[in-house]
User: Which sequence fits this backbone?
């Protein structure tokens, strides 16, 4: 996705986005748009949806979307490198089954948790090795591991379900912090969000992630270890998914092979809605978090209003399409504007020639 | 031009010792046509998948002869994969253009429910009309995908993920908790699902006709070859003057129409349709295509391979219980199969590249000494 843009002559900077003052750049971007939409929806829901302003609603809302919130954080980094991980929901299922099976065999919950997290590491290593070191397209690899991990989960437990967990642990998953109404699961989320936010913004590892997404080859030449970075990101995604699986199991006191089926598409929809480019190289954490919350708040509010799940499906789909189309439509408008202003000037060409495809094609011929 | 031809001639004397597989790669026209056709088929990716499929069928038949020869064995062997074959053919065409269509499962659900509704709301409606309605409805939904992707210049993955949600939402709104039952549809339609001609199921014949038509088009027609060109390098295809946008839109229309047809087939085969029909089948279709050797980033592969991949996926699922593995493990095996086939693809591609480089070096040195 090389975008050729002509900078105004009076400015020394070559990126159009940097020709605007700071406040403009902070207020008018994709992330701000998603956050504004989130605020508007929350205000609308508080004033017009009965019981939405309720503390209990917020608690359940956060409890419900916690797995998506958690997995969306590392998924953001994976998508920024131009890759994708479709296997997250299967890792959730696998870790849930491992936890259930081991507890059923008399293991203590913390020991079973460690095994589940280690399984996450192994899953991530497999994904990461095949993508980063063998050089296979991540879309195909993770469709394969989606089936593989889910298959192992279903194979281990069959149609059984483990529902007997120590009450202390299941209570912890649903516990609230004091009188705030915030569930305890918010704490690991906030820690992780802060850590990943700082990592992305201020560490050379994090800046390398953007480099890889923009141009993996150039990143390699500037000293970014492309393969190692990708491997680490896939491991992080799988470990966080395994953690989400543990949470999921304890929250519903249920360990089943088909837990969280289809969650991967919800996570990816939320991340893309938050302004992360599927081609890589672009995206910020605040937008992603707002994207997840936007979907969560909308579904919660609509459900309170008595709307059924189907309308929520439609709204998620429309939001997703609108959020990616808006970039094209805005580009088209500014293109039109620019053409009207500089009719005589030669344009340096359209931004992209062909309709975009499935993801980042740079990795194909490696 | 003449110089090159002379050099080529000289080289041919020196490269006699090349083994047949390299010769096939470097200068296929030097082999006899029969040999060439034989090599092309035997060395093709599709052939290796076909061998695996035959192995699976043989293994299942040895442990339980009813797998092929039993009462419904032969019929089910051909009938069960038909649905996935239809979807895989459409998906393969889209993936060859370096796009992907995740909405096929929802389109299938839509037209399956549409089929049932048409029979309920218009008793006595002729079956061909229903099939046509399914095809057209699917094509219309595919057109929406295609127009958004072609004109919006946005990734197909995102758009079809969005329409996956939207189309499913529409079906859920429309159907609610209603189900279509076999008794709602005329008997002749339900019998079509299991009917056979010369012991070959009709639905399998439908899938076969679609497969051959699409395969022939991709292999020989100008439009078909353009789809490969677009998938190899979309920007180059634009510069070359190919109608990229039109081709991509038509690929999505085809994929939608085939998913629509599959919905009708689904209703005929299973008799009962709920609003969740076809949920999650999109990833199976992509998996079948990948197993069949179509590169996920487009430009290579055939619908023949995709179809064999689909048959293999379904057949493995059915064969596992017969060879004594609990069917809970089937999904794990499918995952291993997908990973194995993409790793195999990479190994084969690397080997071919090395051979070509070796042949070029060989040519350079012999050319210099001559």
Assistant:
């Amino acid at each position: 996705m090389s975008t050729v843009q002509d900078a105004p002559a009076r400015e020394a900077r070559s990126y159009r986005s940097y020709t605007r003052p700071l406040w403009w750049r902070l207020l008018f971007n994709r992330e701000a748009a998603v956050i504004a939409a989130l605020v508007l929806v929350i205000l609308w829901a508080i004033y017009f949806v009965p019981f939405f302003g309720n503390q209990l609603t917020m608690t359940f809302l956060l409890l419900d979307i916690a797995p998506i919130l958690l997995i969306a954080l590392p998924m953001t980094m994976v998508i920024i490198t131009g890759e994708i991980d479709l296997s997250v929901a299967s890792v959730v299922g696998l870790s849930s089954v491992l936890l259930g099976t081991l507890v059923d065999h008399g293991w203590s919950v913390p020991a079973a948790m460690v095994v589940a997290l280690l399984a996450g590491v192994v899953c991530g290593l497999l994904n990461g090795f095949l993508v980063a070191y063998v050089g296979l397209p991540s879309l195909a690899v993770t469709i394969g591991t989606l089936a593989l991990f889910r298959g192992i989960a279903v194979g281990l437990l069959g149609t059984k379900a483990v529902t007997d967990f120590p009450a202390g642990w299941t209570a912890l998953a649903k516990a609230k912090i004091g009188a705030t109404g915030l569930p305890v699961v918010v704490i690991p989320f906030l820690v992780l969000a802060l850590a990943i936010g700082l990592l992305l913004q201020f560490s050379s590892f994090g800046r390398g992630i953007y480099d890889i997404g923009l141009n993996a080859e150039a990143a390699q030449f500037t000293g970014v270890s492309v393969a190692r970075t990708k491997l680490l990101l896939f491991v992080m995604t799988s470990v966080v998914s395994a953690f989400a699986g543990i949470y999921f199991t304890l929250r519903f006191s249920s360990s089943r092979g088909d837990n969280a089926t289809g969650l991967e598409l919800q996570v990816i929809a939320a991340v893309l809605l938050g302004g992360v480019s599927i081609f890589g190289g672009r995206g910020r954490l605040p937008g992603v978090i707002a994207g997840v919350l936007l979907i969560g708040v909308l579904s919660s509010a609509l459900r309170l209003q008595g709307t059924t799940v189907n309308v929520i499906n439609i709204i998620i789909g429309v939001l997703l399409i609108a959020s990616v189309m808006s970039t094209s439509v805005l580009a088209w408008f500014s293109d039109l504007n620019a053409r009207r202003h500089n009719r005589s000037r030669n344009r340096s060409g359209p931004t992209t020639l062909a309709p975009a495809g499935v993801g980042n094609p740079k990795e194909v011929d490696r | 031009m003449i110089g090159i031809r002379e050099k080529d001639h000289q080289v041919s004397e020196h490269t006699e010792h090349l083994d047949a597989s390299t010769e096939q790669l470097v200068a296929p026209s030097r082999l006899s046509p029969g040999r060439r056709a034989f090599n092309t088929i035997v060395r093709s990716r599709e052939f290796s998948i076909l061998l695996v499929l035959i192995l699976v069928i043989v293994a299942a038949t040895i442990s339980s002869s009813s797998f092929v020869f039993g009462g419904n064995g032969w019929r089910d062997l051909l009938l069960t994969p038909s649905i996935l074959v239809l979807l895989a053919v459409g998906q393969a065409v889209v993936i060859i253009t370096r796009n992907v269509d995740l909405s096929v499962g929802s389109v299938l659900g839509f037209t399956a429910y549409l089929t049932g509704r048409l029979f309920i709301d218009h008793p006595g409606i002729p079956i061909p009309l229903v099939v046509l309605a399914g095809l057209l409805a699917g094509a219309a939904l595919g057109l929406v995908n295609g127009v958004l992707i072609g004109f919006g210049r946005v990734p197909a993955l995102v758009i079809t993920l969005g329409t996956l949600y939207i189309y499913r939402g529409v079906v859920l709104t429309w159907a609610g908790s209603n189900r279509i039952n076999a008794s709602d549809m005329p008997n002749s339609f339900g019998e079509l699902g299991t009917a056979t001609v010369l012991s070959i199921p009709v639905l399998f014949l439908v899938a076969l006709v679609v497969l051959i038509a699409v395969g022939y088009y991709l292999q020989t027609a100008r439009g078909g070859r353009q789809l490969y060109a677009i998938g190899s390098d979309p920007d180059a295809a634009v510069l070359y003057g190919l109608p990229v946008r039109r081709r991509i839109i038509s690929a999505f229309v085809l994929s939608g129409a085939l998913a629509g047809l599959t919905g009708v087939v689904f209703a005929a085969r299973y008799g009962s349709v709920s609003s969740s029909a076809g949920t999650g089948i999109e990833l199976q279709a992509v998996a079948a295509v990948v197993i069949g050797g179509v590169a996920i980033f487009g430009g290579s592969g055939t619908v023949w391979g995709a179809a064999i991949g689909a048959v293999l996926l379904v057949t493995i699922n059915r064969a596992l219980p017969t060879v004594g593995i609990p069917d809970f493990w089937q999904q794990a095996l499918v995952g291993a199969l997908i990973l194995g086939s993409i790793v195999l693809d990479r190994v084969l591609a690397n080997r071919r590249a090395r051979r070509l480089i070796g042949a070029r070096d060989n040519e350079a040195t012999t050319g210099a000494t001559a």
Summary: Chain B touches chain A through 66 residues (CB under 8 Å).
